[in-house]
User: Which sequence fits this backbone?
């Protein structure tokens, strides 16, 4: 095994020694390689990435399809002590938003 202190010239001529913390590394040096030029960017060269524009629906929310308004009415009625009215609003909210867990949870708490 040969090291950098070996008296024979030429054996490690193609390698460059790099010493680090607790390690020595030999890297092959290609003397005919073309060194890449450093490219600098200015702010105007870099494109600005912007999020897509938000699409706003102009039509109003149909009251018969809005489960949240029925749920809020049920919650307000329950907080006010009107439990029968709260159950009715809960059932309306369950019909309008079938897969929403909030009306089911409130309805179960009322019963």
Assistant:
């Amino acid at each position: 095994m040969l090291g950098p202190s070996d008296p024979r010239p030429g054996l490690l001529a193609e390698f460059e020694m790099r010493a680090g913390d607790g390690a020595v590394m030999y890297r092959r040096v290609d003397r005919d390689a073309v060194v890449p030029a450093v490219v600098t960017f200015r702010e105007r060269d870099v494109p600005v990435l912007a999020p897509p524009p938000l699409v706003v629906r102009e039509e109003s929310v149909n009251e018969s399809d809005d489960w949240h308004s029925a749920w809020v009415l049920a919650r307000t009625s329950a907080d006010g002590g009107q439990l029968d009215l709260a159950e009715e609003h809960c059932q309306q909210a369950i019909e309008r938003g079938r897969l929403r867990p909030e009306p089911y949870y409130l309805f179960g708490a009322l019963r």
Remarks:
- The helical segments are 67-79, 83-96, 101-110.
- The two ends are 85 Å apart (CA to CA).
